[in-house]
Amino acid sequence: MSKSDPLRDQIIAQFDTLSAQLQQAARYLLEHPEEVALVSMRELARHAAVQPATMTRLAKVLGFQGYNDIRTYYAETLRRKSDGFAAKVRQHPTAAAGTTESDIAHQMLHGLSVQLTTLCAPETLKRITAMADRLAAANKVYVLGLRSSHVVAWHFHYVMSLLGERSVHLDGPAGTGGDALMRAKSDEVVLIVSIKPYTVDSLALAQLAKDKGLAILSITDSEVSPLAGISEQTIYCPTESYSFFHTLTPALAISEVLCTLLAERDRPTALDALQHADDHHLQLKTYSNTLPRRSPQGE
């Protein structure tokens, strides 16, 4: 489904005014538009974990006479647009009988490659470069990502710490991670990584930082993410996976790209900082400089 689809824009605009059940149904429509066109209302409601009547109410809230009208809308939109490989990947979420582990691995990796390709869309690239501009202009960048999102936040902070001292990771023992915001200033920003299910602490710290006058920059998974409404800038990344868990590969790729763009802004300074880091690690003997001896074959 096209990101510029008028109904999609309408759902996003009205999302905050909907009840919790209608929000759950609306989010499922946003994330699975092809499914709306292909399955019955009862099956779609079951997948969205709501009652079938909720789908009917949602259709009427959106200005349709009933669910069949909204299904027809999605079906016509789907006929006008082909998503190519991405659609094929999404249409085969369950392994067929006789599928080998190699087949599953191939399917997952192919799906990830499609998701990474979607990040090359002009709108996403525009968002990435705009966020790099905002990060470069900030005197300090606070970085937050909890639970599964921690790996993305930590990666960004780790790389940025090699380039200088502007990055502060909001992570600490005994619940002290947010204490670094006590002396935060309005010329600083917070980069938050969070995907559904969104952690309460991430949202609370985001709101606290915003109330203190800091700009919120977010990497999240949906236009109806609770971070989208409070963020100055947002980059959206797909998270659907063929495993039992969501994927963070696209979010991690965004982190890598942002770090590279920031380093390229002042290449000589970045190279000096990296050389300083190399010298430091050499003194500490952080990394092994010798290769293990190989045993002769047959031993």
Describe what this molecule looks like in 3D.
With 299 residues, this protein is α/β, with parallel strands linked by helices. The protein folds into two domains: 6-80, Winged helix-like DNA-binding domain superfamily/Winged helix DNA-binding domain (Arc Repressor Mutant, subunit A, Orthogonal Bundle), CATH 1.10.10.10; 118-284, 3-Layer(aba) Sandwich (Rossmann fold). Helix content is 54%, strand content 8%. The protein has 13 helices and five strands. The chain has a five-stranded parallel β-sheet. Strand 3 (189-193), helix 11 (200-211) and strand 4 (215-220) form a beta-alpha-beta unit. Helix 2 packs across helix 5, helix 9 crosses helix 12 and helix 10 packs parallel to helix 12 (249-265). It starts with 5 loop residues before the first helix and ends in a 15-residue tail after the last helix. Mean pLDDT is 87; it is low at 82-92.
